[in-house]
Records
---
Amino acid sequence: MSATSRALARVGCIVHACAVTGSWYVLFMQDKDIVSVRTWTLLAAIWPLWILALVFPDRVQRLRWLAVLIVGLIILTPTYSTLYSFLVWRIGGFAP
């Protein structure tokens, strides 16, 4: 992975987390349908794929990525219960 693509991936990880949290706020707190709930759930559920980008870098890069992931997880904190509910509902097939 080149230095440019690593930098873009770090920015992408944070932007993805901000997009998920921002859309969560508008969808569930402001009650405005900007995207479907299924689309939001998919967008939120694929965020952990950023971890796969962290598997192979050297030690210094791994520490930077770890910091980026922690920031992303902190940004996503308000969405955890909603995401969990919708994923269990979708997989388990029950309505809350």
---
Amino acid sequence: MPGSTISPPREIVTAISLMGVNVFLINFFRALSVATGILSSRISGSAVFYKVTDEFLIWGFSLGLLVLIWYGLNWARWLNLVLSVLNIGLMIYRAVGAFATQQYPALILPIVYVGLEAFALYLLFLSPGRLWFERREGASAA
């Protein structure tokens, strides 16, 4: 229940864990690319500041959204749904491109991402996971 000190149900914990794996899978390689670009001087000057700031914002927003879902904030769950649907569309586009160019190993990440994210959304939006986000009787509207 939102605002309570009770731990979320196991469906929510599982969904957040799956989404955490996806955050790591998607963001790790980009962060590694930025780090190696800075160390090899491919990225220099003011671009370093922007790339590092971008990485901190992406990681912070992604993990922060998962924390807000953990605390039972319904708007965070719905925002995550919108962002997940957009990201699933992007991953399907990447998979189609990899398939069309016969780069079959490049299909692994999009397929894993879509599978984990779809299952996490299933756990968040269907009972009993969705019950964690329902307002308690008598709770004031914020």
---
Amino acid sequence: MTETVKECKFFYNPPLDPNDKKWTDEIIRDTLKYSPPIEEDGLIWVERVVLPVSHPNRKTGGDNSSLNASRVNKPNRDNLITIHTRGINVTCKPLKTVITNPDKPREEWKDDLTGGYGRSQYFDELGIPCWVYDRYRISDDKGEFQEDDGDVVDDTKLTDNAKAGGSQNTKADYVTAAVGKIDKYGSKKWNENKIKNWLTHVSKGELSEGQVSSYAEAAHREVKARGRIDHDCSNENHVKKQAKEQKLGKIIPLNTDGADKQGNRQRLQRKMFAMMRDYIDSGGQTQNFAVFNSFATTHEEFDNDNVAMDRIMNEELDLMSEFVTSRLKYGTKPCQITHVLGQRIKVDNPVNSLFPYTS
């Protein structure tokens, strides 16, 4: 018979004293049972131990920036509420560190935090003096995509965030990490195929094949665009902000990415109905657009996409005019709902057949 456990058994209030036997006799015992240490490429697990939260180094550099460079945007988590109300969840992985001086005596070890930033940021606020950590040391036996210690640390930060139950990595996280690999080793050595294989590996199945291809391409395009095209502000919010600051009146932002080679009309078409309404409400005032490009890597590509979008806009306006002329000419209703897919069980028979629509 399968043993069942009440959910409350998975939570412990953390003792304030790191030497309290409750840590080892109950909390660490149960974390090892329900959440054993994970094997990591290039790392060797050393111990699961209670440490003062001030011991692991969370910051680096003159700007005191976070060691967790794998995250472009720090995610909002529910850790504050969970830790404050329920304590330690023994089914969750402990915070993770890499020992930076493993050759020293154990009492002199120093640690860099590599996993658990979401929880660590709340310890000071909640007055928590100590917590459970998994300590690792860097192995001489590196992973397939690791050439030095820096690769090991960078990869483990990504893989830690890729685990289920945490705040998942974003596209920006993966692309930024991939760009770091290209900058470090060059685009020939870390070509798109290698980036794809690496992303598949470090994401631990989190990414689909399509996402892997898209992220690898985006990383190489970002490197290629460097020094040619600035993408730091290529977004709608910045265009709106600039229009306001420069007192240009109402400006509609429009991304021209893919307009030339792909004939991308969707970005314009999504704005057409709102534009038509504004044109009518304003008494026929011309609606002004400002184009930007979130993906171009060369000046030529940037210019060609803008020219192509201008042509597409004129084609769409011609279609609208032709539509109005045809409606006046034929006098028929241009479109209507005629059928509905029957999905109501015990009402529509047979289900998933098309039935005449009545309002």
---
Amino acid sequence: MKFSKTIFAFILLCPIGLAFSQSYTDYFVIDEIAQNYEELEAEYIGQTNVYWTDGNSINAIEQISNAANTVQVENLHIYVPTKPGAIVFSSIAITTLNIDELAEQLTTWSNVVGKQVVIHSDVVFTGAQGILLKQRLEEITGLAFTMQN
């Protein structure tokens, strides 16, 4: 049973929350189709430094920007399905084929993340397409992108 992502969105985006911005070294985003979703849910449920994406809402890039905008984030950790050269959210995929179309949305991450974006994957930045995706993400956002299993 999935925990209501609407409640998290309300808590993170409500005006009262904006008035009391919090500072986090690490902020976690978990996509609803992430591997081990249930384990991640059990580990992070109730924590205020976690956002759960919703595939029925605006695309995940905008959701992350909106949620992270309410807090100060040093490292953004993203749990999402991946394959070499592709970050596959339930609402949108970021690939070498569409990254230029998504560049404007992705640049907003540089306004909300201070240091790096960590994609929890062991393959996303492997192979020629993965290396190109990493380079383009870093060029567009000005942030370091790393992968961690």
